[in-house]
Amino acid sequence: MTVRVRDLEVSLGGRRVLAGVSLEVPAGSWTAVIGPNGAGKSTLLRAVLGLVASRGEISVAGEDSQRLKPRQRAHLVAYAAQSPNLPVGMTVFDYTLLGRSPYIPHLGRESARDRSITEEVLDRLDLTAFAARPLDHLSGGERQRVVLARALAQQTPVLLLDEPTSALDIGHQQQVMELVDRLRLSDELTVVTTIHDLTLAGQYADALVLISGGRVAAAGTPEEVLTGPTVEKHFDARVHVTTGPGGRPLLSLERP
Amino acid sequence: MTTAFRAPRRLPRAKRTGQPHARLRALPLAVAVALLAATLLAGVLVGAAGLPAGGVLKALADKIPFVHVDSGLGVIDQSVLFELRVPRALMAALVGGMLAMAGAGYQGVFRNPLADPYLLGAAAGAGVGATLVIVLVPGDPGYGVPLAAFAGALCGVCLAYVLGRTAEGDGAATLVLAGVAVSSFLAAAQTFIQQLKAEELQRIFSWILGGVGSADWDQLALVAPYALISTVVLLTHGRLLDVLSVGDEEAASLGLAAPRVRLTVLVAASLATASAVAVSGLIGFVGIVVPHVVRRLAGGSYRVVLPLSLLGGAAFLEVADLVARTATSPGELPLGVVTAFVGGPFFVVVLRASRRQVGT
After folding, report:
1. Which terminus of chain B is more solvent-facing, meaning fewer CB atoms within 10 Å of its CB: N or C?
2. Which of A77, A93, A98 lies nearest to residue B19, judging by beta carbons?
3. Is the pLDDT of residue A215 over 80?
């Protein structure tokens, strides 16, 4: 289930945010979009979701994403926002059930199947015990898992995650990334994440796309993209790159 | 294409049945219906004319098809009951139900529990309409004020919507700002018009302060169709408002056309508000307090809040009207004053009680 973007151009409020962006995410792979703050990473995800007007080609599973109706698109792509709105008082179960929206008739109600799929997802993410708990009574790590649960309940082949680990401590970052990887492998999901932590990106993603100044500055395997000079050029950061397990790069900051 | 999701290895059977999810449960619904029935009955039984309760009940039973009971009420008593009390009780229920349900709808659209059915200029628009008729039409035939108030309320909301759409920026926030602008403009216009004819101030103010004392079957027939339409539309949009509660972008990623849902709910809620305002003037408090109480007691899903607000709002205003016409009998208090007077302390009690319960 490929995601293909060609010559994407997005302007927001008259300012060009992305220009000439092309990338291809093979089915079942994990691509991490990295880049400095304000580079346009989130905008790229939002363009794929059809949330912002864009020029160029975006295809998801061979379908022209810009031509799809929101409901059709929601059958193909699920999205977890960087800072999701968690309605106060809504329970974990009801929130996860929202992921079934694309399958529920406009003025209809959810079926028993929708409910059982929601229960399955909660069970897989070890959230069954939390089902009746309001969202505002959850810790950051639990919250991130619930947001993931909603996206999974959508049963889409493609998962777009905007900074899934940004609010989490190092242990929970690892847990969420492991969880996403496990789900990707078992369900053959295609995963695209934006992510700030370059080492984390390098450890988990099959491919990295470095966006800088609204353009693709580098793309390829983590070893190809995460080199000292590239990081210094685009992030203005001094790092020391070593090779970790599996040949994947490990970055550590160096004081200038 | 959607088969990529594999079933988990094992399913805990015991947990499969009873996951609590947002839907209207039988008990709260039954309680709300019983509450409304009891308050309606009280509204019909109590009044200045001092009709015998037994006679009233028999006369009501006599109206049930195929039931014939001799009520023992005289012609005048009969007419007091069926031309004054019954329509008034029904009107209080209708107005309360509409305002509370519209308030809940507005709160869902704006994702803000403090949104009010008058937020987008319905009140000020209705005020202009009613004042215009009172000032300009000397021998008002009786339906002039409701019609003008109804049209004024809808015009106010339309104006705010058009203004909000033409401005750039975040949809909901711009719309609220436009509503504020339109409201203050129309309120100024209303004040200007009423100054033109100071001798009508008494009538204008008594309209503004609200009441259902003049309710009759004609007025009921005038607004009932609109009330019915908006009720059907709003009650079918509960789930969609729940989806909208995650915000426009995330709702769109869930396949929801957020602007369309918002517009539909806004139109229906404004229609409900306009039908209430048209026949009752400006009655505050109901639209915010009732949905809030419902939320505290029965949960925040709009599938629960909308229907229970409809029933609860009807019962609440029924009680308020009962107080309005008995507290200073034989005089009457303005209904808007009573709702604030009764509702304010009640609101505080509910807030305190639920805070203890949550333990925060």
Report:
1. C
2. A93
3. yes
